[in-house]
Write a sequence for this structure.
């Protein structure tokens, strides 16, 4: 049959008959195999079903399995609903508690802000009269000393008293001024301690780190405490350094002042017995500033206690203790803030040594006559000297008492002082051009602050030396003053520090 022959049933059968029968048989066999497989799977499923039924029935609390299972399911559903309700109630209570905690946190933050504003008010309003009193006391002390040295007056006109007067408890003017100075120092220390601890607690005290010569800090402290020690017959030895360090000058000064105050408080009176050492020693990349004394020392079990708040060691019996027991606690927190290692070594009966390590950020200066002179540790010029003779100083201050105190103190140093509450007033008065400007940062309501007034005067007299005085300890203010090239002092002003700053900036 040709390919073109029509396909018929007969033809198809003639061509495929045996093959077709074979295919049908194959299909039947396949169906049989599949049916057998399905029957086997069905039997397996029946077994599994029977096992599951048995398991369910065996787990039922009673022979009536279906109903018992239903009851059990209902009970479980009730328990789940009860626990869900309890969970919702707990979540509601937790939400209410969180809301109360949020409100309490907001109240605490508001209290902290209020505390910060209160501290700012304390820093200015309370320290302002203390600043004036310190200036007056220093000026009076220097005037009395000059009178005592005046050849036209007998030497005992100021400093001596008769035995009868002494027996009656009558003090000389010099003694009264010295006591006044010590009392002011006590008040200043107490206020400073309270302000510092409050700032630390409020978290508003931040470090203003800069690089400066360590002598800028220690020279003034050495002279100040040398005079305080001499009044009690104590010797202070000073080992200076010409290195530069990286720290916050004001905070580091607070640390070293505390070391020195503690040393003077606990050493015995008498020049042959009481000795205090303020010294510097290089330790690799660190400069170790140490204050050591020959006092009673500190027992080993007390060396950690002294850094705790409101803990005080017993002072000398004849020494009146005015401290709050916060000084060394503040020292520990400040050194922690600055990341300066703090150490204490002591031998009971032989004295104690407190030390703080500060990073060195500049190499030692070149050896020479200037370096030799700077490292002798000799005291500053006599307080009776007139290092600012004929220097024209403008003082911008809105407190009349502070102005008067500045005029008395600076006038005693030989300066020509002009004071007003606004720089514009001094300009209008056509006084002599300033050679140095001293300005209070916080002036009267509605007036530009001290920094702005100083900048305005510098536009007229470029390079005019400026010293800013403030009760604000904030790091941004200090950084701003430093960026403008201004000196910066905190209230109440230390006369020795002020004199050094003015002499160096003329």
């Amino acid at each position: 049959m040709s390919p073109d022959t029509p396909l018929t049933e007969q033809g198809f059968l003639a061509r495929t008959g045996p093959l077709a029968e074979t295919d049908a048989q194959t299909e039947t066999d396949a169906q049989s195999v599949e049916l057998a497989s399905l029957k086997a799977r069905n039997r397996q499923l029946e077994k599994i079903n029977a096992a599951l039924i048995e398991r369910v029935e065996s787990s039922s609390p009673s022979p009536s399995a279906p109903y018992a299972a239903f009851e059990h399911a209902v009970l479980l559903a009730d328990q789940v609903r009860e626990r869900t309700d309890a969970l919702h109630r707990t979540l509601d209570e937790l939400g209410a508690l969180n809301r109360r905690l949020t409100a309490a946190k907001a109240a605490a933050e508001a209290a902290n802000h209020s505390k910060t504003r209160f501290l700012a008010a304390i820093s200015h309003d309370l320290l302002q009269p203390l600043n004036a009193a310190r200036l007056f006391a220093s000026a009076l002390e220097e005037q009395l000393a000059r009178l005592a040295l005046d050849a036209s007056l007998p030497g005992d006109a100021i400093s001596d008293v008769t035995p009868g007067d002494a027996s009656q408890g009558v003090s000389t003017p010099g003694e009264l001024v010295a006591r006044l100075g010590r009392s002011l120092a006590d008040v200043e220390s107490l206020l400073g301690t309270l302000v510092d601890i409050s700032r630390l607690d409020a978290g508003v005290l931040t470090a203003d780190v800069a690089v400066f010569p360590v002598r800028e800090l220690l020279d003034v402290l050495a002279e100040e405490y040398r005079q305080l020690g001499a009044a009690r017959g104590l010797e202070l030895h000073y080992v200076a350094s010409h290195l530069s360090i990286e720290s916050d000058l004001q905070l580091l000064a607070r640390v070293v002042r505390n070391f020195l105050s503690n040393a003077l408080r606990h050493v015995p009176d008498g020049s042959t017995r009481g000795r205090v050492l303020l010294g510097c020693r290089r330790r690799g990349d660190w400069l170790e500033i140490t204050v050591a004394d020959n006092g009673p020392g500190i027992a080993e079990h007390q060396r950690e206690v002294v850094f705790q708040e409101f803990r005080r060691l017993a002072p000398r019996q004849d020494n009146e203790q005015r401290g709050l027991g916060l000084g060394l606690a503040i020292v520990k927190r400040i050194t922690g803030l600055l990341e300066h290692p703090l150490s204490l070594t002591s031998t009971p009966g032989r004295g104690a040594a407190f030390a703080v390590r500060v990073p060195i950020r500049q190499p030692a200066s070149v050896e020479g006559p200037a370096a030799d002179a700077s490292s002798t540790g000799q005291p500053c010029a006599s307080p009776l000297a007139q290092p600012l003779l004929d220097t024209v100083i403008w003082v911008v201050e809105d407190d009349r008492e502070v102005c008067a105190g500045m005029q008395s103190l600076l006038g005693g140093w030989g300066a020509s002082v002009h004071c007003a509450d606004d720089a514009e007033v001094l300009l209008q008065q056509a006084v002599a051009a300033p050679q140095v400007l001293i300005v209070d940062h916080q002036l009267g309501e509605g007036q530009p602050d001290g920094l702005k007034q100083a900048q305005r005067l510098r536009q007229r007299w470029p390079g005019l030396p400026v010293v800013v005085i403030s009760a604000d300890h904030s790091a941004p203010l200090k950084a701003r003053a430093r960026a403008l090239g201004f000196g910066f002092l905190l209230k109440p002003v230390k006369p020795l520090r002020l004199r050094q700053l003015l002499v160096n900036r003329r």
